[in-house]
Amino acid sequence: MRIFHLSAECYPVAKVGGLADVVGALPKYQNLAGLQAAVVMPYYNRKFVKENVFDTVFQGATLLGTRRLYFEILKEQTDKLGFELFLVRIPGLLDREEIYSYPDETEQFVAFQIAFLDWISFSQQSPDLIHCHDHHSGLIPFLLYHSKLYTRLANTPTIFTIHNGQYHGAFGWDKLSYLPEIDLSKTGLLDWAGGINPLAAAVKCCWRYTTVSPTYLQELTINSNGLEYLFYMERAKGVGIINGIDTDIWNPKTDPMIASNFSVLQVSKGKQANKEALCSRFNLAPDKPLVSFIGRLVIEKGADLLATAIEQSFNEHPGQFNFLLLGAGEKETEIELLQLKAFYPDWFHVFIGYDEALAHLVYAGSDFLLMPSRVEPCGLNQLYALRYGTMPMVRTTGGLKDTVIDFGDEGGYGIRYNDASVEDICEAVSRALVLFNNTKHLQSLRKIMMALDFSWDRSSKEYINLYKSLNPII
Ligand code: ADP
Ligand code: GLC
User: Fold this and answer.
1) Rounded CA gap, 140 and 40, in Å?
2) Which CATH class is domain 2-246+457-470?
3) Which of 241, 380, 459 most suits a substitution to test ligand 2, by most atoms within 8 Å of the C-beta?
4) 405: which of 47, 103, 202, 259 lies 20 to 30 Å off by Cα?
5) What does pTM read for this prediction?
6) pLDDT tens-digit profile of 218-229?
7) Whose CA is nearest to atom 20 of ligand 1?
8) Closest CA to 450 of 373, 374, 392, 390
């Protein structure tokens, strides 16, 4: 019943986006359902690591090409996250502050994977299943099944979850020597478009791959940054399971990061109190509708459209709403947004940076949350927004399509549009403003939103059923 989740991120240890939220919650819910799920991730020199006590449970040495690496496996002493947390620490490689973007990222993540396999292999552990997340752990299925070093583990089922099919972690064949004693007749399994592609290798070698919504599973065959044909060919192995949210953390009744806690019974009062706190922090008028955006400022999120769309909406509805933006990413987009703020200081505020507590307050205090994503495998923001009675305004794609129904349709509670375009965003804003003036209708929709169940209770069962289909012991 022992499952290892491998990931580059895990909330609250290290987070860039939704991957962290999923890996910080899914194992906890699996353990509540009777499994023994643990998380293994690289060591980062960050707040959580500094503030918690870890035991060294293993020390070893391994090779990355000709480079000898000493590593240790640290375990958080109390299992306070609801699962065992293991960190792979490699001095000089995996002991830094940031999660991504180092020039030797390939070396970092390959070493992470080898150290993990060496650890479980030398310490004679026999997990019942290994669950890898995104390309950072994508070489594990290949190495398990095609390296002499790990033959003892070669019957272990592997599941690979794709949170983002745009990033593959590809590197050149000149680095093949990083991989330990592999069967050279199998190197084709590592290859895609003339390079070693960890995402492609994982899809080819894992027992099953999953992605985080049924619609995104289909979309991978038409938009996955060059892997479309592979996803088409391997489609029989694919499963779409929508993410859940951690309702212990994302709960407006108890959330310590918001200004005023509220339940569905006092939704208008509660949201207004949070809106006032939020608006006073950013000098915006709290009586106007507040539309917000939270997220990475990258092309997949449609962030490049925001400045133009917000300005056009201000021109169409001058002084009729405010817009608040929390995010960081592409420098060009950040600059454009900061310039917009200089032009519309009373209606628009942008906070460039990452601020977990502020994000909670934005979900609680906003009326609408805009998500014009070009690609959205699942999206968690819309699920958090719904839980806090904030109406998501989403492009019909990926997980957004699977979780939001337009309020104009039967059983609907959100706003949906088809294109990641300035026109569609402006149209969505216009609809939101009309709805805002129909207080009764908006109130009844907020009650529907808050009653929706996107908890992990449901989604984690789907993963457990999948595990069981691969290993009846589980
Ligand atoms: P992705 O993983 O693609 O970035 P998701 O919607 O799955 O998108 O998850 C994004 C997560 O990151 C959410 O928890 C969201 O609140 C958080 N987030 C994104 N940007 C910021 C930011 N600038 N400050 C605080 N939280 C952020
Ligand atoms: C990725 C996706 C996002 C998803 C998250 C968690 O970062 O971009 O849509 O919600 O992973 O699965």
Assistant:
1) 13
2) alpha beta
3) 380
4) 259
5) 0.97
6) 999 999 999 999
7) 295
8) 390
